[in-house]
Structure formats: structure tokens, C-alpha cells
Amino acid sequence: MTHNNPYNLLPLKPIGRNETNTANTYSPQDMLKIYEQQFLTEVPEDKLTEFLPMLKGFYDIDDHTLDICAVIFDAVGDACIIYNHKVQIGDYQIVGELVKEELADEDYSDSEGEEQQPAQAYTLECKRIFFINDVQMPYQFNLFIQGDGYSILTRKDSLLEKIYWFVNDSFEEHLLDDSEDLESLESINEQLASLGVREMDLTTIHELVNFIEDSLIDDEMADALNELIDAAE
Fold this sequence. Notes:
By secondary structure, the chain is an alpha+beta fold. It is built from 9 helices and 7 strands, in the order E-E-H-H-H-H-E-E-E-E-E-H-H-H-H-H. Helix 4 crosses helix 8. The chain is elongated. The chain starts with 15 loop residues before the first strand and ends with a helix.
């Protein structure tokens, strides 16, 4: 059956029919595209009530399919901003040598008062490459490792590192610190524009930093770190 396409909806190929044979089914990626078009397509106000039935007819889907599209969209909601700015994870790099840290003298007794030997702590300079709109952006950090736990101290040199500190510096620090190193949203967007990356609002900046924090150490890097520690011990 042929349907009019006055809004230039994307032609998508269904992967089958639902169990009751009343609607097409689509891949998750295409269902996300359908959902995005539901809200991103410019529709004249006097045509709003006609648009949704037209959308459903064009793709031969029902309300249940649209509900599933919404669930998929919510599941990747935080990543949509990342998707729109084409943020991608690049390779990691071990920048320096693994350094054994001397722990301060503290009481490491257990609940019964018996002294426990703390796990050896290490620090290591690392770098992760990210891409925004295909522009390569380095992110360097110092990794503190002890036992099964670790913490990260981000440098303040590259643009991506400055964006991290812009988000994580407290409100009071932004008010009190008048140093030249303090970044503003305007200065960040000026630097992004100089690299050919479109400007970001505060929500986008926060989502970007969340994505960076979640992506710094992947399984491959964790395995490499464990090998370094095993060799040091």
C-alpha cells in the first residue's frame, strides 16, 4: 500500500510483522528514528492532529509500536545528546610508569583490633582520546589505584579537561575564583567553535562529562592495568 509522504519521512525497511500481523516491526535503530521523527518533524499547527495517524500509516505501525519506540528512546535518552554531537570513544594510552605510593601511617585494625595490612597503592598517568564531530580531543588523568578501588584526578590543560572542571567545580569556586584559568560556558563554546564543533548548552555539557566519566576505563584498559599491577607485585 502506497502512502503520501508530505513531510519527507525517512523510508525504513521493516524486519517483519508483529505476532497478530497487524503492524510492521523494525530494528531498534529504526524504531528510534521513527520516534525522533515524531517530535523533530516540523508540522504546521493546523496539521498536528493529522500528523501522527499519517506517521503510523506511512510505517504501518500501531500505538503499541510507538510505545516501544518511546521505551527505546528513554533507554538511550542520555546518549541522544552524545549521538547528536557524534561523540565517540578513542584509544587509551598509558602515559607514564606505574608508581608505588607510600601510605600515611594510619590505624588499619579490623573490628576485633587486629592489625590489617593495607593494599598497596599505585598512581599512573593515563590518557583517553575522544572524538566530537570527528575532532580528536585528548583527556589526560592521574589514576590512583588501591585494591579493588580507584579514583581519578583530571588534568586542566586540554579543552575536554577544562570542560570537566567547568562542570565539577563548585558554584562557590566559580564565584570566588577570578583566575584566567576559569572557564565559562561562553569561552568553552568559543573554543569548540574554533574546532568546528557547534555550541553546547549546560545540559549538553553535563551529559558530555557524564559520558566521559563512564567511558574512561573500559574492559581492555582494565585488563592492561591489572597486568601492570601483577607485574609490579
